[in-house]
Amino acid sequence: MLEIKELYFKHKDLKEDTLKDIKFLAESGKVTVILGPNGSGKSTLFKCIIGIWKPYKGSIHANGKEINKLSYLERAKIFSVIPQEHEITFPYSVFDMVITGRAPYIGLFSSPKKRDYEKAEIALKALEIYHLKDKPYNKISGGERQLVLIARALAQSAPFMLLDEPVSHLDFRNQIKVLLKIKELAYKNKITALVTLHDPNLASFFADKLVVIKNGKIVAKGKPQEILNEKLIEEVYGVKINLIQNNGFNLICPVLDFLNYK
């Protein structure tokens, strides 16, 4: 379980707090989505969670351990991080990319061992991309690259997986494919998955729990079907919507007044 307690963060060159009184729980085996518009503080929150930036108030506990008291190596064994996008210059193979997830367990002057290779192969099979293992990472599609990065995170064997806008550059089919795989892996491997998204419809379909933030402050949290409504979306995104409920999901449709120009 990941527990954020009354977190405040401010950049030195800014007068206003970037994050204000952030507090929530993210549970093992479930997907918690941090939902909010661009610039709302989602990426900043991730950097605080993994210890890149230090909040001036509050605390972050992962399975009862306070993050800021852990070494970089200890944190690398706890958190796996999948960035928004990842480009490399050299033509590393897919397998080489995945096995880098084992870095926290390999000495500085050591080579991967049999167990590391086995973990990488298991991760590739779990993501159903084993057939790509010998292909250059920079020659495969965007959706495939995202699956490779998730496989790398899975090979890392970390109990917490943080994914920062993992589908923002993918087409509709690959968005669904990647998010379904994240949900499946979280459930099967008892991983605490924390995902940032800015699309409320995707969040509605895939989140077990939603934490909605605006201007660095939580404005709502809970199950998507319980908290997503017209008032909340208009408050957070400044867009009027109609909410359609279908099979327990909330489908958000914008009210496009400009279409009535006739």
Provide the fold topology.
Elements: E1 2-9, E2 19-26, E3 31-35, H1 42-49, E4 57-62, E5 65-66, H2 72-78, E6 79-82, H3 94-99, H4 114-126, H5 142-155, E7 160-164, H6 172-189, E8 192-197, H7 200-206, E9 209-214, E10 217-222, H8 224-227, H9 230-237, E11 241-246, E12 249-254
Parallel strand pairs: 3-8, 3-9, 6-7, 7-8
Antiparallel strand pairs: 1-2, 1-4, 4-5, 9-10, 11-12
Helix pairs in contact: 4-5, 5-6
Explain the overall architecture.
With 262 residues, the protein is an alpha/beta fold. The chain has a single domain, classed as P-loop containing nucleotide triphosphate hydrolases (Rossmann fold, 3-Layer(aba) Sandwich). It has nine helices and twelve strands. It has helices at residues 42-49, 72-78, 94-99, 114-126, 142-155, 172-189, 200-206, 224-227, 230-237; strands spanning 2-9, 19-26, 31-35, 57-62, 65-66, 79-82, 160-164, 192-197, 209-214, 217-222, 241-246, 249-254. The longest helix has 18 residues, at 172-189. The N and C termini lie far apart (54 Å). The mean pLDDT is 91.
Number of domains as seen in the coordinates = 1
User: How many strands?
Assistant: 12
Number of helical segments? 9
**Intertermini distance:** 54 Å
- Helices and strands, in order, run as EEEHEEHEHHHEHEHEEHHEE
CATH class: Alpha Beta
Low-confidence runs: none
Biggest sheet architecture:
6 strands, mixed
What general form does the structure show?
globular
The CATH topology is given as: Rossmann fold
Integer average pLDDT: 91
- CATH-level-4 superfamily name: P-loop containing nucleotide triphosphate hydrolases
Strand order of the largest sheet: 6-7-8-3-9-10
Radius of gyration: 19 Å
Structural class: alpha/beta
Gross CATH architecture: 3-Layer(aba) Sandwich
Estimated helix fraction: 25-40%
Share in β-strands: 25-35%
